[in-house]
Amino acid sequence: MKRVLILGAGLVAKPIVRYLLDLDDFEVTVATRTVSKAERIIAGHPRGRAVQWTVDNTEGLGTLVANSDLVVSLLPYAYHVMVAKECIAQRKHLVTTSYVKPDMKALDADAKRAGIILLNEIGLDPGIDHMSAMRTIHDIKNRGGRVVSFNSYCGALPAPEAADNPWKYKFSWSPKGVVLAAKNSARYLKEGREISIPAEELFKNYFTTQVEGIGELEVYPNRDSVSYIETYSVQGIETIFRGTLRYPGWCETWAAVGKLGLLSEEEISLDGMSYRDFVAKLMGIEGDPEKALPQFLGVPEGSHVIEKFRWLGLLSDEKVPFEKSSPLDVFADLLEKKLHYREGERDMVILKDVVVGEFPGGKRERITSTLIDFGKIGDDTAVARTVSLPAAAAVRFILEGKIKLSGVYIPVVPEIYEPVLEELERLGMKMTETVEEL
Fold first, then answer.
1. Which of 49, 128, 148, 151 counts the highest number of beta carbons within 10 A?
2. Average confidence score pLDDT of the chain
3. Residue 287: its pLDDT value, please?
């Protein structure tokens, strides 16, 4: 019997737990602060076990790791290295869906000496995006070609029929992370020229792309794309860009969000203020802000941006529920109250890669790969499926001996991405590919 320890029972845990329990020779222990969450996911399965555990219980972690063959950490990334060191000490494999940080990379030699794999970034963004990219990149190289350009766009969105509010967006968990991400700068390579976008200009640098069956979506830059030249081994590439997908209107709205000061993390006094007063304070004016707002934001009167602000409640007489807070936290609180899914609505994850390869003789191909996955709120969401099922497949293949690597890895080598992508296709997550000669 193969024994898997899963740390955490949050919003992405259910698909991986149920996948592993559906295998005949796997036992799964879910260790979490709130045992009732784990018990709901396990749903009485005879090979599932829920235990109470918190991250400060290091002795308890040692016991849990000792009684497992592999650990999956679904904890916040800050705790992964603590878990990894315990896994190294006890020679147990580790899988996470989080980005590799320098302190995790530093454990590579120790993991190799222990004969274990510390596999990270095996979810979605990062995860499936890496694997799809590398399958295409390696195919181009194996045919004697070179990669000229690489564009990858990814987004978690409401399905079209659920995008029924003015923002055309909904949160399946706390929106603060999305709001904080709006403060990121970006860097990418375009036709040999490196382009840096400061955070305050992020949403002014967008374009649109067509996704079959969905329509036109906006794309804006996602952090540092240039670093992926090394990750994907595409030295000499002319264009490399990773972007985030949203429905039309998102970027203009969020540019206005930043201009109004809603992304500020500086605490201000809000005692007795209405949201209308709060907006006036951010604008530095007295009285009703509504008439002055379009000019302040640089948008036309009657703009969809003003309508979104009004719908959200930013121009209402409702009292702000904080005596002191940052504008960012006030804004995130409003988003959480208004932009939520209803039970049974579908969420959607889209990944689109566009890769151009050049081959001997000068022939060029554009390879477009698209994944669209739908989930259901109250069941398995698309976000939960696309994050945790790649990790689930990797867990299976590590313990079945199909992945035989040791050290710190992300899924950019064929030994990992080939079996995992094949299993995801079996589970209904298939990249649809088109090839066009240029």
1. 128
2. 96
3. 87
Name the pLDDT band for 254 (thresholds 50, 70, 90): very high
Q: Are strands 364-374 and 432-437 parallel, antiparallel or unpaired?
A: antiparallel
Q: Do 98 and 110 reside in the same domain of the chain? A: yes
Rounded Cα distance between 411 and 417, Å, is 6
Residues shown for the chain: 438
**Count of the separate structural domains present in the chain:** 3
Region class of 90: left (phi > 0), else alpha (psi between -120 and 50), else beta? alpha
Distance CA 350, CA 80 (A): 27
State the pLDDT confidence band at 418, using cuts at 50, 70 and 90: very high
- Residues with a known catalytic role: 125
> The tokens of 104 are what?
């995790």
What is the C-alpha separation between 313 and 224, in angstroms, rounded? 34
Q: Which of 117, 20, 68 is nearest to 404 (CA)?
A: 117
Parallel/antiparallel/unpaired status of strands 407-409 and 186-190: unpaired
**Boundaries of domain holding 408:** 2-125+382-429
Same domain, 303 and 407: no
Alpha carbons 212 and 133: distance in angstroms, whole number: 19
Domain shared by 375 and 411, yes or no: no
Query: Looking at the structure, do residues 273 and 330 belong to the same domain, yes or no?
Result: yes
Convert the pLDDT of each residue in 365-399 to its tens digit: 999 999 999 999 988 999 999 999 999 999 999 99
Tokens of 281: 């304070």
Q: What is the mean pLDDT of residues 53-81?
A: 97
Distance CA(407)–CA(115), nearest Å, equals 8
